[in-house]
């Protein structure tokens, strides 16, 4: 269980597959209703109910979630909100297979609407004025770190964000806590009790919620080998200015150290679409100096150009190869880093044209934000 500071998968941005917010044993209820709501005295629980699809979000789900969260934020009888996932996963992200089908059918406006809905909902979550309890993979399918990921990744210690964004690797709960991405970490066996006690809160403020989480936190010191023990090496290799330099640095370290981690990291980078690597690195670097709203607007612009396939068809290639026919043989375009020109990368960051309106976010609305994972 994690409490996110104002303004990541499993996801974050990657995605925690089993946590406070996933209902084990695939408990079946309201079959056919992808968003289920449970009411209690002073809280609301929303349950993502597509266990067969690992609770991947569709556009109607995004619209419904936005409506619910906006109404609860205005309701004085709702003190906090809980989000769960039915089945073995909380949420696997957006339904990219459905997006792939829409793109191949030429339904680009529906794709745009989908991403616009998701990005606005992510902004709503990130700026929500009430305690919001929830537990929440992209470059490997020819996409880029989006839905605010370039903001969160860029604010991780050193160059850990670059590593995670380019390799699509995951952090454990303990690693999230120890790198500062999460403010609390609790053991799974404690979660049912915590959920039960949460339901008894009369009017939980942010400070009361923090005190509650403090009392249930597990203080981990990561004595066993983990990613954070490699932070110096990650900074040394991923602090370079280009993807080529990052790979060269890793290859040098692999030769010197005979380190399997370096070798496997190089392999991951060479399996990823070269164009996406360069786009992602630039996006994360820009995120270091931008607000969450600016990051979401930039990511939305990149996403529109990604799904348009006007520059490259990598997104459809990646989804097809990994999730549709599962051949695991995508044909990346361009196929090598050397063939990715600066102009190609720049095209993803250029100002939007008349057919690509900016993402409309309520940037003028200032409110205290708290995300609890």
Give the percentage of residues in beta strands.
Answer: 5-15%
**Biggest sheet record:** 5 strands, mixed
Q: Give the overall shape, derived from the CA principal axes.
A: globular
End-to-end gap: 5 Å
Mean pLDDT: 76
How is the quaternary structure best described? single chain
Into which percent range does the helicity of residues fall?
40-55%
In sequence order, what are the helices and strands, one letter per element?
EEEEHEHHEHHHHHHHHHHHHE
Radius of gyration: 20 Å
Q: Could you give the count of β-strands? A: 7
Briefly say what this structure is.
With 373 residues, this protein is α/β, with parallel strands linked by helices. The protein has helices at 59-74, 96-104, 108-126, 149-154, 160-167, 173-178, 191-198, 206-216, 231-238, 243-257, 260-271, 274-287, 292-308, 314-324, 342-349; strands at residues 3-4, 22-23, 35-39, 43-48, 80-86, 132-133, 371-372. Strands 2, 3, 4, 5 and 6 form a five-stranded mixed beta sheet that branches. Strands 1-7 form a two-stranded antiparallel sheet.
